[in-house]
Structure formats: structure tokens, C-alpha cells
Amino acid sequence: MAPNCLSIALAGNPNSGKTTIFNHITGTRQKVGNWPGVTVEKKEGTIHKYGYELRIIDLPGTYSLTPFSIEEIVARDFILESTPDVVIDIIDASNLERSLYLATQLRELDCRVLFALNMADLARERGIKIDADKLSELLDLPVVFTVGNRNEGIDDLLKKAIELAESPTEISRRRRVKYTKDIEIAIDRVRRRLSDVVGDGPYNPRWTAIKLLENDSVVRDRVADATGDRAADLMTAVAQERLTLRELYDDDPEIVMTDERYGFIAGIIKEVVTTSTRRRVDMSRNIDLVLTNRFVGFPIFIFFIWMMFQVTFTVGAYPMEWIESGVGLLSRLLGAILPEGILRAFVLDGVIAGVGSVIVFLPNILILFFFIAIFEDTGYMARAAFLMDKIMHLIGLHGKSFIPMLMGFGCNVPAVMAARTLESEKDRILTILITPFMSCSAKLPVYIILAGAFFGARAGTVIFGIYMTGIVLSIITGRLFRTVLLRGADAPFVMELPPYRAPTFKSLVIHMWDRSKMFLKKMTGVILVGSMVVWGLSAFPRNIDYDMDYSGRIEALKAAYGTTLANAEPGERDPILRERKERIEDLQRARQAEHAEKSYMGRLGKFLAPVFEPLGIDWRGSVAIVTGFVAKEIVVSTLGILHAVDEGREVLKETLKTTGMTPLSALSMMIFILLYVPCLATVAAIRRETGSSGWMVFNIVYSTTLAWVASFCVYQTGQLLGYGV
Amino acid sequence: MNCTDEAVEKPVRLSDVKESRTARVVRVGGNGPLRRRILEMGIVKGTEVYVEKYAPLRDPMELIVKGYHVSLRVAEAEQITVDQVR
Q1: Can you give the pLDDT at residue A58?
Q2: Less crowded by CB within 10 Å, the N or C end of chain B?
Q3: Which residue numbers of A have CB closer than 8 Å to B's CBs?
Q4: Which residues in chain B are contacts of A128 at CB distance < 8 A?
């Protein structure tokens, strides 16, 4: 690395204000990506200050460096493998005792650590006084006070960090946790054995010895790799030491060591913290007494959620319209410029229509993510999980899964992305897999047409039943996956309920934008390709051998009406003109229908028809279902095209009835639409958020299979019971 | 009434402690990641735990430990043995 190029990692507990500080340091110069191989967000930014190029890396917020969650593994690996020049541990000053746990672990890693005592103003308000000099002396590291949301102390922090990085002194080995004699002896013995085998590497020997005694599987595997055939001896020795210690303390060494770290911390706290007895009114606690109240807690929660949906879909509808008309305008403009032909059809019907159909969701997504950012930044998200956990736990899920699942009723794309708020990867994947069963708003028009046509006054009940079916199947699926696929202990619900805080507008916007950008970037690419493919399937082959000469017919009609019009009285012309228009449109639609039928897409539908036949769905239905993969909205328009009717809903309903569809087959089709593979954008989101194509393929196969089986059962049972007519 | 500052009852499970009561941790049971996690969050032997409230559906529960608020499922709190403190 160049001499004046430094890397600074920000570590700290969740809710310590780490992200706020990171945002202040890097501003808009930040890159958001993922840590390699996992779905944990990696944020970094490079800034130039004081003649240095500073690369700032925001490590995931963790309470410790015990590798139980991916966040902890990511944070620890970064410190171990990438060896940043300085690690800044951001500490919530009002929560010093617990924060110091991570600090002692960082200290043990022997990296250059610097403390940022953040939110010191809040701590002072709560009557907590911290003697920073004493803390600095006791732990032998620099301590800086910061107030993240007011940008105080940040410059000082960076200056100190540079100073520390450039200081030539050896990292002090004195001020770290000293364990009781027996443990220290064991550490020493393991350390010596270790250096016999591997010399000085790969990591700090004392730390490695401690981790081996703690039975840390990651470190154990790495040491085993480094020691090769001598690993077995070393591990036997470690196991022996562990056994001795366990007999001595009647508990596992890692538990004893955790206890002792807290003991060490308690000692520090006693010396540096003075808590004044004067207790001020704890606002956050009072707010919480209302928001998680036994009686009003749930009503308030439901109100917040209702408001989020209201605003997302009503306020979002306006910009949606603007975007739609913008897309329409662009389409018309290009339509006027481009010559008639394949290129024009490709650009207008393929590219613009495809991307346009996804980009209209942007306002919804922005608003939804703005709300989620508010929920998260204020601390309400943790309360939502607190309220809902009991219910969600019945499905084998975490309280936090509720928000993504609920959002699924709106649109599955942001819903799948909202699963990021779940810390445990298993919970996240499970939530992502069952969220698509929440019937999204794009499926509603399909239900309205089908239920409206075949169930009349009971349409509302039927649609409600469809939604409930989705919910019930998601519960069953959740339980099934939890016991079969994503086994293992539930993620513990040891969740901090951070104090309520007023969010800063800047962080809300950054939060919202980070996530929406992801939607735009990744989704448009996939959607673009996907809609081009679907367009290609329905547009080709170009030269279709039509059953009748539509163009000729239209010309003949025009000519016929020409004569009628010429002979008609001026007052009678309007109805004739209208009639002419209608008959020409009928012909055009018939041509379109035949084109659709004979296109590759139509052939595919007919090819698939035998698969759908046991479900009571005809080839038109199967084509509509196939096109619905791009976006569920398309199902209705495809049905319209294939039945050669205008999209007008009433007409389509009447036509559907005449083509042999029965209430039972309509029900079967609705259930299929509810359950089968989610739209392209959702599938792309699943691929992204689970970080694996495997889960994506699994989701496609599982949902489609389930859809087929469910529809099959409904249709066949219905027929047996005599509802088939 | 003998109101001393010490434990007045024999050890109970944390899940049995009523709202607005304080207890002192005797032992954190259970095993694996959950136990370790509870300890790492500062719920170690000797720590005073204040039961702030139970969720509206009686599960999970909210505790105040070392000056911060944390929630635990009742099933998890069953693993923690405490002395009730007056």
C-alpha cells in the first residue's frame, strides 16, 4: 500500500451510531456492496484528508466476535485477514459496559484500536459521567468523544486514527483481559505447543490459544489447515486442557472466560463511570410504555402498518402515473421516429414496455423503504418484532419476518429485499421463500376478472379465500422448511430494544436510496433481458400463415363503408363511422389473437396445454400463465389478446364464460396464479438476496409444483363432487 | 415484614419473575450459541436484571440489564436461574 494510504475499519455494536458516523465521514462517496459470498452489506468509502487517502470500511454491527452469525464472521475475518491499519470501536457511551465486551475482544486480537465514545451527550443526560482519560489509561488506547448525529468530534477521531496508525510503538500487551491463574496457565501451554508447531503464524498466538480453548470452530479449522499432519496432536492437547478446565470450573471454558471478561469490564466501569443518583425522566421508556402496551400496542402497530401501506399505494400512485405517462410519451416519440418494422416493435413492445412495467414500481419502493428506514432508525422495528414474535414463532420464524411478509401483499420485490433486516441467514432465507405466497397487488386484477365473471356476488368472499389460502400455505411451508431444509436451533431472540431516537433526514435518505438503487440497478438488467425474451417469443415468427386474409378483409370493409358513407345523409354518418371502426377493430383483434396463437409463445402454451388440462385450464390460460412470469399484470392483458377482446373487463368476463371456462376451472386458475413462480423481478430479487441461484431455482420449482398440486386437487375434487359444470 | 436487600426467596426461573421486579442471575443454563449469546449480552452470573414488561401476547419479555433494554423469549428465560431481589 502507498505510504500515505490508510485503511480504517469501523467496528461497534448495532445501534451504536456507527452508520451515522460512517455517513458523516464518507458522505456520498460510499460504495455499497456485499461481503464476498454472503449477503451482509459491505459499505466502504475513500476520502482524502490531512494528506492521506483514507479507506473507511464499515464493519457489520456486532456484539462480539464469537463467530455465531455471518456478521460476526465477516467482521472478524476482515480484521484478521485484511489487517486494517486502525480499528475504530464505536461505543454507545450510555451503554459502556456491554460495549466494552466487543472492545475486550478487539483488544485481544492485538490490532490498533481506538475508541469513539459516541452519543456522549445522551449519556450525560442520563446522568452517566465517563472519565475518558482514565479509560484511555486503563486500556492503553486513545479515546475520543463524538456526537455522531451532530458531526462533533469526527475530525478529531480521524486525526487520532492517523496518529495511531503512524505511531511506531509496539502495540501494548499489558492492558488486556487477564484471566484467572488456571486459565492463564492453560493459555500459556497451548500457546507454547502452538508455536512449536506453526511458529509465529497465522494469527496472534495468545489470541489463537484463547480461541482454541474456547473451541472456536473457525480458528480450529484454520489452525488444523496450517499445521497439517501435526494438527491431531495439537487438538488432542487442547481437548485435554479443555477437559481439565471443565472439571475445575464445572463449566465450559468459553463460558468461564466470558464471565471473566465481564468481570474485567466491571472493574473498569467501577473506575471510569460515575452515575449520578438524580434520575431524569426516561422519555424512551415512556414512549415504549405506550407503543408496546398490552392493550394499545397492537392497535398502534396495525395503524402504523396501515398508514405505511396507504401512503405507499395512494401517494405512490401519483408519481406512478407520471412515470407511466412518461414511458408512454417516450414510446410514442420513438414510435414516430422509428420506421415501422421489427426494430420498432422490439424497442417499443420489448424494451420500453418491459422496463416500463418495472420502473413504475419505483415510487412504491422508494416510499416503502422510506418508511422502513423510519421504523429502523427510530428503533420501532425492534418493537414490531417484539410484538409479533409470538405469532411469527409459531411458523418457525422471527418477529422481524412480519414486515417483509406483510409487504408481500403490496409487491414482492421490496418485500424480499426487506428481509435484509433479519440477522440470521436461515430466518432470512425462510422468509424470502415464503413471502411470495403473500398474494401481491399485481395478482389482484386477475382475481377480479376471474372471480367477478364466475362467482358474481360471492366474488369478494372467493378472493378473500384465495388470500387466506396463500397465508395458510405460507405457514405450512414455513413449518415444513424449518423442520426439513433449514433445520437447527431458531435464532435466539436475544434482541436489543434500542432507545427511541429521532432519525436524521440525511440518514433516512441514504438508507432509502441505498436500497432503491439496488432495485434499479439489478432489476432493470434482468427485466430487460426477460422482457426481450418474452417479446421475442410472442413476436416471432413474423410471417404467420393466417387462416384468413385480415388485411384484405379490412380493406374490403373500408371500401364497403366508403360507399355506404358516400350515400349516407350527413346526420347518419356518425353511427356508421363508429360501426366501421368497431368492425375493423374486431378484425385487428382477431388477427392479433391468431398471431398470438401461432407465435412461439402460443405454441409453447399449446405445448404446455396437456400439463394444464388436469387443472381445467385451456391453452389460452396456459399462455397467460406463462407470460405472467414477466409480471402478473400481463396475465389479464394476455387473456384479452388471446380471446380477441378489448381489455375492457366486462367484455373479457363474458367471453371467458363462452369459451368453456367454469367456476371450478376459474378457481383452479386463481389458485395456480396465487402460488406459481413469482414474477421475474421477484425471482431476480430472490437470487440477489439469498446470494445463490440454488435457492432461486428451488423457489421456482417448489412454488410451481405446489401450485400445480393445489390446483389439481381443487379441480379434480370439485369435479368428483359435481361442481365441474 | 423483613425487608432486606438480599434474596428473600429460593432461586426461580427468570421466566417466573413478575413485571417490575428485579432479580439477580445465578446461572445461565442451556447450551450452544444461545447460552453464549445470552452471556455475551451481559446476562452473566451476578448481574441484576429488571423485568420491564412482557409483550402483549405474554412472550417475549423485556429486560433491563446493565442499563440497556433487551428482549428474550420466555422459553429462553426459562434457562436462566435467578434469585428474586426485593
Answers
A1: 92
A2: N
A3: 63-64, 66, 68, 94-95, 97-98, 101, 128, 254-255, 258-259, 262, 285, 288-289, 292-295, 297-298, 382, 386-387, 389-391, 393, 399, 489, 492-499
A4: 67
What percentage of residues in chain A have a pLDDT greater than 70?
92
Nearest to B39 among A258, A292, A399 (CB): A258
pLDDT(A154) > 50: yes
Interface contact B68-A95, CB threshold 8 A? yes
- Considering only the beta carbons, identify the residue of A254, A289, A386 that sits closest to B36: A254
Chain A interface includes B20 (CB < 8 A): no
B44 touches A at CB < 8 Å:
yes
pTM: 0.80
Note the pLDDT tens digit of each residue in A475-524: 899 889 888 887 765 667 788 898 898 888 887 888 788 777 766 765 56
- Taking the CA of residue A144 and the nearest CA in chain B, the distance in Å comes to 22
Domain ranges in chain A are 5-166, 181-275, 297-442+492-508, 541-595
How deeply is A28 buried, as exposed, middle or buried, from its count of CB atoms within 10 A (0-12, 13-18, 19+)? Answer: exposed
Structural element, H or E, at residue A104 = helix A96-108
Spatial CB neighbours of A195, under 8 Å, sequence gap ≥ 6: A205
| Fold topology of A5-166 | Rossmann fold (3.40.50)
Contact call for B69 and A498, based on CB within 8 A: yes
**Residue whose C-alpha cell is 511458529:** A199
Q: How confident is the model at residue B1 (pLDDT cuts 50, 70, 90)?
A: very low
Could you read off the pLDDT of A204-254 as tens digits, one per residue?
Answer: 888 889 999 998 888 888 888 887 778 888 889 999 999 999 999 988 898
**Which residues in chain A touch residue B73, judged by CB atoms under 8 angstroms apart?**
389, 393, 492-493
Angle between helix axes A444-455 and A649-658 (nearest 10 degrees) is 60
B18 touches chain A (CB under 8 A): no
Q: Report pLDDT for A383.
A: 92
| Nearest Cα residue to B52 out of B24, B22, B26, B73 | B22
**Which of B39, B67, B70 comes nearest A495 by C-beta?**
B70
CATH number for domain B12-85, candidates 3.40.50.970, 3.40.50.1950, 2.30.30.90, 3.90.79.10: 2.30.30.90
**What type of residue sits at position A371?**
F
What fold does the segment set A181-275 form as a domain?
Answer: Helix Hairpins (1.10.287)
- Chain A residues with beta carbon closer than 8 angstroms to that of B47: 262
pLDDT of A349 higher than 60? yes
- For A188, other C-beta atoms within 10 Å of its C-beta total 12
Task: Say if B66 is an interface residue toward chain A (CB within 8 Å).
Answer: yes
- The DSSP call for residue A495 is E
Reported residue count of chain A is 725
Nearest to residue A368, comparing CAs of A406, A311, A283? A311
Classify B80 as helix, strand or coil: strand
